[in-house]
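Quarterly update from the structural biology core.
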Amino acid sequence: MKILIIEDEVELLGAICSYLSKENYVCETASDFSSAEEKLAIYHYDIAVVDITLPGGSGLQLIEILKKKHTDTGVLIISAKNSLDDKINGLNIGADDYLTKPFHLAELNARIKALIRRRRFEGATRIAFNEIEIDTDENLILVNNKQLTLTKKEFELLNFFIANKNRILTKESIAEHLWGDDIDLADNFFFIYTHINNLRKKIMKKGGNDYIKTVYGMGYKFSDKL
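Predicted structure, tokenized:
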């Protein structure tokens, strides 16, 4: 799960990034309008946490830019302005939620989790795909009612696959989703195969089926269809 945090207060930016990283999110940051605009033009994010007041421009402008390019990205506004107009304007141009400063980081995390559930899984906290069940709140996975233990990357990889079931995912999109924008510097994506192979073996060891299909020359697809 990849999140872009756009915030000009350095201490708050660092605190948010540190907290969310411990919650297993891949966090990228931007502290001004131009750097945020550049990242949004190049990369795709699952969630954008956007401050309204930024050096060089408005967070509302960034939301408009983002929604033209990636309508599926969830947007959470954070701002010291407790203005009804700001809230209405933000929601009208595509933001999903609004959080007024100061706030507790635990509340921010809860809002992000709720946003992910709405965006990916229609609000459900428990997702089932045949014999596989995922509790997104507890980070718990069951295969045939037996608990499956995964690494952080394997857990997020399975979530990513199920959220995009029956769709072809390129190695590049998987790598960027799990490791962030710096993955551009990687020489190859052989490590993706290792994580996928480990995930496949662990599911099958619990009696689950192998739903990860290799689409040669393109990537992978998570599907129970032949």
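The two ends are 28 Å apart (CA to CA).
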